[in-house]
Amino acid sequence: MVKKRYTRYLIIAILIVFPGTGLLGHGGLTDPAIDELNDYLMAIQIMRFYDEDASVLFRSWDSLRIESGKIRELTDAQGLRADSREVIAQVEVTRKKQKLLLQNCRTYFSEQVKQQPALRIVIQEKIQSNWEDQILEAPIGHSTILLVEVINQRNTSANIAMVSEPSDEILFWNKQFILPPRSSRFTFVALAPLDTNHAHANLQVFDERDNYTSIQLSSRGVEPHAERFLLHPSENVTNVALPVADTVKQDIGQVDSATLKFSISDRESNEPLAVRAEIIDRNGNNLWSPTRRASFGVNRNVDWDYHTTLWDYQPGPYYYLNDGAEIVKNPAGKMVNMYHGFEYLPISQEIPEDGTIVAKLEKWIDMPDLGWYSGQTHIHTTDMGIPVQFSEVWPIVSQAEDLHVSSILTLKGEWKTHAIYSNEYPMGERKSFSTADHIITWGEEFRNDPYGHLAIIGLESLIQPISTGALGELGDPDYPPNSYFLDEALSRGAITIAAHFGVYTQGVEQIKSRFPSTGFEMPIDVALGKVKLAEIAGLGGQMEVWYDILNCGFKIPATAGPDWLIKDTPRVYVNLANGEFTLENWNAGLLLGNSFISTGSMIFFNVDGAQPGSTIHAVGGPTPFEIEVQALTPNGQIPVEIIWNGEVILETSASNSTIYLDDSGWLAARCQGAHSNPIFINFDGRPAGQAEAALKFVHTIDRLTDWVEHKAIFYNQDQKQAVLDVFDEGKNIYLGVIDQAKRLGRDKPTR
Fold first, then answer.
1. What is the pLDDT of residue 304?
2. Apex CA 98: angle with CA 109 and CA 378, to 5°?
3. DSSP code, position 13
4. What is the spatial order of strands in the sheet that 158-164 belongs to?
């Protein structure tokens, strides 16, 4: 049955289910109310664009965010302890607001399902549904929410799992949750049609006794009444602009009537290329103007950003353009600069009088032909200046920057415009927006300050509660520790990354519960084997802290993730050897450390034929090791430094060298604009590990322990003790490294 156009549909799923167990390990001690409220906020921040009541609810979340922030103003700015009268009172105020918002969300959704068509699923001994095949219509370019109500009419708790097959148009965030007896909660499906074709997705609902029902959802897009969401151009680099339903008047001065038209291709293959472009006048000013067709303009001019070694810094504004794109701008007296990632030579040319730009870009190196594929493991689409209609914009961005893998991460925000950021799509590869050469995939960033931020890739479902503590913004406790979250991620087969690696964990006097005090739990989780990669290239990554981790004997490869920015940002090149370029193969090579970090240069490094990420075993010493290394830019070969346990032992422009070693540790190569991952050397009977490096992390853990004892917020003493137990476990590993190093004569300062 085809419904009337533009109707907003809501699904009620009434479930009668049976007892179950907790979601996570460690006794399921996370707060289900926080998980539920996060789910509601994801729906409400979409519904607010077409429903005023949802907009009012969302503003009440902002009030809760402010009250939650006051807790940390008391502990950080005023130095009060968590058990002080003032902090306890503010926590109580915040939690009351949290409970009120949760109840108001439930009331709002209860009213909505009474007003709209609904699907009912009733579970007695089995799960049954009265769902009939229907085609749900939704406007193209707009997300439309379908609410799902889950009701447990049993007298016992129920463990519910809801899973949908992957779809880029019928979106469901897989989840599992526990319902107390005779209770209910809501969740949602988002319809996000790309065109007028039919889309289908199968939604399955399970209980813990293997009862289930399967619901076939079908949708198709229709032309919207309103303009498609447009974006506010914004100069503000600390806030994210919201999409709006109507055309935005852009203050860009007098709009030209002439148009610049672009025909862009690869010089050798003649295949069309996407590029990043700047339009510049005779005075060297970068110009901003509306774009047409497959394009996106970033109206941002800042004097700080990432820099590449390949060309001069460009402050913006700039454009992402596909072949055939148009910019509304008079061509007279204009120049255009065009870029396509690090492997192509940029070009600069005068714009002809007729405004038609024909450009052919040339590769200076073909990394995929050599088995190397670039990517980034920490991206947010709500980039400052790129808050995104994702389906139209990000594919152009990833292709123009020539990123073979773009890992976009959902996170809990601390800005008033979004409760949850970069949540346009559920976890996993987005095949509708990927190509054979450019894969876009979704993951998650879990955050607690000061425990740390974690980038998680390779997930099939979002892990709640997304963030804890001050970054939870809902009066969340500083629980669970990141260690528990990592356990859950690893149990799901995900890759775990310590984001902003080591930022402000050393050299600062006060631990604060907001950025930049990020990453204090990182050394604990590395020692416990729960962090697999170090994000050393990105927002705040610390090379020296990574060196210290390696010097403790932990084999943690590096990766790159720029976070909120994208232009000229660092990337990781992963070697697939002769393997096919797939997301699975790329992630596997990344995890092994068969890779290097680049801001423009390309570096190739092996020891005795072994690639980065490898371990070479040796017996006795001194032992010779043959090094082969080459660092390249468009201008040719550049000098390289060979690093041994964090120290430069060789500076060379030669491709081949011999070194002699007599102890265990790690070797790496670096040059201007690139750094290889390590190759590990293991001498029998002499396991790696330096006392000096380990002692630094003992001090870091002691400082965090003191913060937890006096400043952290918990629901109860059991939560606090569980966190402290994890810290003690990690600290004892570093104390063991120190003892071992002393026995092996490695207790002297090394750097």
1. 64
2. 90
3. B
4. 135-139, 212-222, 198-206, 158-164, 175-179
- Strand-pair partners of 264: 359
514-557 pLDDT tens trace? 666 678 999 999 999 999 999 999 887 889 999 999 999 999 99
∠ Cα 105 515 551 (to 5°): 125
Give per-residue pLDDT as tens, 93-112. Answer: 999 999 999 999 999 999 99
| Encoded tokens for 342 | 């690090």
**Higher model confidence: residue 225 or residue 645?**
645
**Reduced to 3 states, what is the DSSP secondary structure of residue 707?**
helix
Does residue 408 sit in helix, strand or coil?
A: strand
Residue 403: phi and psi, rounded to 5, are: -90, 120
Q: How many residues does the chain have?
A: 751
Residue 299, classified by CB atoms within 10 Å of its CB into exposed (0-12), middle (13-18) or buried (19+), is buried
- Percent of the chain clearing pLDDT 70 (strictly above): 87
Interatomic CA distance for residues 628 and 561, integer angstroms: 28
Q: CB of 664 within 8 A of CB of 681?
A: yes
Given the DSSP bridges, would you call strands 318-321 and 275-280 parallel, antiparallel or unpaired?
A: antiparallel
Strands 623-633 and 602-607: antiparallel
Exposed / middle / buried, residue 503 (Cβ in 10 Å: 0-12, 13-18, 19+): buried
- The two tokens of residue 181 are 């007896």
Distance CA 666, CA 116 (A): 63
| Cβ-contact 605, 673 below 8 angstroms | no
pLDDT in tens, 491-521: 999 999 999 998 878 777 778 776 666 789 9
d(CA 244, CA 227): 9
